[in-house]
Specification:
9% strand; four-stranded parallel beta sheet; Glutathione S-transferase Yfyf (Class Pi), Chain A, domain 2; 2 domains; alpha/beta; 8 strands
């Protein structure tokens, strides 16, 4: 399967290693990614102007549709926004007409049949844990990871259709495929706090603190992410804002795709990563 690669706005600026590792790992499995001049997914203005947010998402889908390609994104917020826009457009004929009228100025049209996938879905459904195990160059046995799902892939479940929103298993199975251990932890499905950052910083940090406490209590050596915003919250916001007097251990947050790439034998340079000794 060939996918139109949707990196979103945050990855190129703040998390370039996520894109580097994604490209390297998918190349290993012969899954081509096509670059397109996409615009923002619309997520940042979702609660200010819903029509504008849906138009932004629909334009991206229309561009991919013109090339006959499904969209794949590593960003859960982008994934959730694109899926939400597609759902709203399918259900609301008047909204669909309005959006397609705007799109027609560029010779574009929204197509209800366009497939939108998150990176974890591609890894799980297109490749699968079994094939990952056969391609593995080294086992990460002994490394305990807390799978942090993030909110936007799971919820609303009837819209994203990513996995069971109350009892998902995809992420844990993908972690296990690398040889690492996926621990069970109480707050694995809760928000990391990033959506509240710069709106209510105290609450944002409190939610993150509670998640880290839960991960540490589970025996995890690291929190494992597959979401741009969650990784930024744990890896950028936390070290800049964390209270130096806290007694919560500073376990790292690691992107799953880099962990997977390491197990496949890819180098740190190929994964855009330093500091991992798995």
């Amino acid at each position: 399967m060939t996918y139109a690669f949707f990196g979103g706005c945050k990855i190129p600026q703040y998390l370039k290693q996520y894109e580097i590792a994604t490209r390297a790992v998918l190349k290993k499995f012969d899954i081509p990614l096509v670059d397109m001049e996409f615009n923002c997914c619309g997520y940042p203005v979702r609660h200010q102007d819903e029509t504008a947010a849906i138009f932004a998402a629909a334009r991206n889908m229309a561009l991919a549709n013109r090339k006959g390609l499904p969209i794949m994104t590593p960003c859960q917020c982008c994934f959730g926004q694109l899926k939400l826009a597609a759902y709203r457009l399918k259900k609301d004929a008047m909204l669909r007409k309005t959006i397609n009228t705007h799109l027609s100025a560029e010779g574009l049209t929204w197509d209800a049949d366009l497939e939108i996938c998150h990176l974890l879905s591609v890894l799980y459904h297109d490749i699968g844990p079994a094939l990952i195990k056969t391609k593995r160059k080294k086992s990460l046995k002994g490394i305990k990871l807390a799978a942090h799902y993030g909110c936007h892939a799971l919820r609303p479940g009837h819209i994203t259709r990513f996995d069971n929103p109350l009892a998902p298993t995809i992420f844990e199975e993908l972690i296990t495929a690398t040889g690492a251990e996926s621990v069970q932890w109480h707050r694995r499905l809760e928000c990391c706090g990033n959506p509240l950052w710069e709106k209510n910083n105290l609450l944002s940090l409190y939610l993150m603190k509670k998640k880290i406490e839960s991960a540490v209590e589970s025996g995890a050596q690291a929190i494992c992410t597959a979401c741009t915003y969650c990784q930024i919250q744990f890896d950028t916001v936390r070290p800049n804002e964390w209270n130096a007097n806290t007694n919560i251990p500073q376990i790292p947050a690691l992107l799953y795709i880099q962990i997977l790439g390491s197990s496949l034998g890819l180098s740190d340079a190929e994964l855009g990563w330093t500091g991992f000794s798995g």
